[in-house]
Amino acid sequence: MDNEKFYQLTYNTSGTASAVLTKNDTVDKVYIEERFTNMKDNIPLICLKDIAHGKCISHMGITSNDDYSGNEWAVLTKFFSIYSGSTSKENSQIVTHQESHYLQSLSASLNSGFTEPHVFCFTKPGAQSEYGKPHESIFLMNPKRGVCQLAFRQVLGPNVRVKREEGVPEAYYNRKTFSICNAFESIKEFTNCSTLKEMYAVGQLGTDDKMIPSILSKCGAQTSQFKLDGKKQIFNEYEYIKEVSDGKKKRDISLNLVYRIQKDYERYLIDAVNEYFSSQTRDVASTSRELIITGTLNDNVRANYLLLKSLDDDFTLYVDPISNEVSNSMGLAYELIGSCEMAPKGVDNFYLGRELDPTDYNLLEQEDEKTVTPKEVAELIADGNVVAIAQGRSEITDHALGNRSIVADPRTIESKQILSRSKYQPDHIPCITSVLEESASDWFDMDKLKSSPEAMYAVDALDVTKEQAQGAVYTDGSTRVQTVNEGYNQNYYNLIKEFGDLTGVPMLLNTSLNMHTYPMCDNMENIMSFMRCSGVNYLYLPETGKLLFVPTDS
Question: Are the beta carbons of 273 and 120 closer than 8 angstroms?
Fold first, then answer.
């Protein structure tokens, strides 16, 4: 056991199960269970064992939206006794926490580096009994001083109102008590979309159908219009969809339905922020113009960009890159650090997953490898090839940032289609565009956006991009942009720069290293398994300078 450092361990069991290891006052590792087991909702046994191995744990914590089962508590206690050396329950420094909105807000606040942010958290209630559960909260935070003031909260249910609290703007008590996230979920299930990203892509194929009323304004206090039972989560106004016999017509209506809720949410987000800052009472007033968006919907990258564009120049916006329940376990980790009378530090980047061993593979007879330079890999991509890149520690975000990525030439739409089909992903789902940070403003409308290292904004593409990088531009003329600099990811930066020097286009199309709907590949074993059954034949390992050729299994 390593006794030189002060280790703490937290984990989350609901949604995306994860474990977070902190060392002294800083997050050290974040492991996601589904990348070990392909399972989400579970006690993260495998990643707990892996992340805690060889460590002497002083504190442990568990977070979940529902009550803790005896099994979960037994597992937690067992782990603590093994890795702390403590066998008595009295000495077990174990905490539990169920306030997910607070934990997500705390995590985002510390990672943002802001001093006194206003944090908007939009989530599904996420419990077995959803009525009466919070789905929208706003906190005024000072994470370094451990100060958290609840400024506003809404719960789900018919005519459910929060107890009036001092300092909460009166206007908020008169707003409708529906869950934005549940509205998205209902339409997502109806259209068979697997993710919010896919919903946004589908919505771009739709049009403004005047037959469809405004969704977010219709599902308020009239709760009979909104049902919380799987695919029946459809509003009564849309019963006519069931009566449409023509398949094409039904598809068109589905696309228009997604288009409508996307536009509604864009407006809702901007209105909610404006209403909050215009109606603050003296008790919650703050001179701070630091704003954070976190929770389930923070991956709505187009809404994030439009919100940014709408803000006055004195505002700064941070969108939490962790759009899954990982932020619960990370928030609890920060809480434990504070309880040990240390000031927690936020993270500098989100490459906090498992370390890749780029030598841990064995080639089959028909496979090959050679030593290459970044320039040679760039030439391969420019020739129309799709290339996987794997290095360092994996991303803990839901999307790839250059350490577990598949990249392609952005100059043609055909290249984008080849990239999507190589991982069995529908053509309409957009990729991230990774662009050199110093060149981003030459190709995209980066107004108010100095950088976007975690790709949380879909910005407007400039005319030069529409002409020379057609594969990077979505149907609505936007692009989800990741800006890359030397300090953030040196190897990935070098590859993009070589491609830019070769083609005059300093960017690459980027999607996650996985089959569509499957977890991101995390180590060489599952990367090689992916390569052998996908349409991706080249794997670049920049840490060793190796390029592997892996033909697809016939």
Answer: yes
Kindly report, residue by residue over 250-269, the tens digit of the pLDDT. 667 778 878 888 888 898 89
For residues 306 and 404, membership in a common domain is answered with no
Burial of 504 (0-12, 13-18, 19+ CB in 10 A): exposed
Residue with tokens 């989800």, as numbered in its chain: 480
Q: How confident is the model over 208-227, as a mean pLDDT? A: 55
Model confidence at 20, pLDDT cuts 50, 70, 90, reads: very high
Distance in angstroms (rounded) separating the CA atoms of residues 23 and 107: 16
Q: Which two tokens stand for residue 120?
A: 């908007």
Q: 204-217 in b/e burial notation, b at 16+ Cβ within 10 A?
A: bebeeeeebeebbe
Phi, psi of 356, rounded to the nearest 5 degrees:
-85, 135
Q: Please indicate, yes or no, whether residues 262 and 197 belong to a single structural domain of this protein.
A: yes
Round to whole Å and give the CA distance between 123 and 133.
10
Residue where one domain finishes, among candidates 43, 67, 98: 98
The pair of structure tokens assigned to 478 is 């936007």
Tally of domains within the chain: 3
Q: Within this chain, do residues 150 and 291 fall inside the same structural domain, yes or no?
A: yes
Confirm if 279 and 171 have CB atoms less than 8 A apart. yes
| In a domain? residue 56 | yes
At 458 the three-state DSSP class reads strand
Domain around 55: 2-98
Using the structure block, give the residue that is written with the tokens 């403003």. Answer: 441
Q: Could you say which of 98, 114, 134 is where a domain stops? A: 98
> Residue 513 falls within a domain, yes or no?
yes
Main-chain dihedrals φ then ψ at residue 86, nearest 5 degrees: -90, 135
In the predicted model, is pLDDT for residue 63 greater than 90? no
Closest CA to 134 of 148, 147, 146, 120: 120
Residue 174 in tokens: 């008169």
For residues 428 and 92, the model is more confident at 428
Q: Is the pLDDT of residue 172 over 90?
A: no
pLDDT for the residue numbered 121: 93
Nearest in space to 319 (alpha carbons), one of 302, 309, 303, 304: 304
How far is it, in rounded angstroms, from Cα 20 to Cα 68?
A: 19
Cβ distance 167 to 281 under 8 Å?
A: yes
Residue with tokens 């064995």: 362
Q: 350 in a domain, yes or no?
A: no
What token pair was written down for 330?
A: 């990370």
Rounded CA gap, 120 and 113, in Å? 16
Handedness of CA 125, 44, 16, 1 (dihedral sign): positive
